[in-house]
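2024-03-11 09:14:02 INFO queue: dequeued item Protein ApaG, len=132
2024-03-11 09:14:02 INFO validating residues
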Amino acid sequence: MKELFQHTAVTDGVTVRVAVNFLPEQSRIEAGKWFWVYHIRIENDSDDSLQLMTRHWRITDGNGDVNLVEGEGVVGEQPLIRPGRSHDYVSGCPLSTPQGSMEGFYTFLRSDGSELQAQIPLFPLAAPATAG
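2024-03-11 09:14:37 INFO prediction written
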């Protein structure tokens, strides 16, 4: 099955695409835990090689509570993405509400030592409605 990227942001030749899916098998709704998995593809359409140095996430739950997450790389990697190439990874997000959202940015290092911040598009986290 081909994955459909639902959300896209473009910054200075860097395209960030996101596909997100709710995982009921990883969720414990009776315990107030919902879980999503997201697939990110970062495409480098610039003329420069870019090394992904850090990530910055703003995760908002259904109550409006915000959790900021910052760290080096993505899933333990700081990939070098050459012009015309892409990097894919998969990660997950738990929430204590059945809906919320994620957005943020990546910081890349260009070959000349300058930095580029590429937007991660806002994407919703929404569990399907369940019969009560």
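2024-03-11 09:14:37 INFO annotate: The chain has one domain: 7-126.
2024-03-11 09:14:38 INFO item closed
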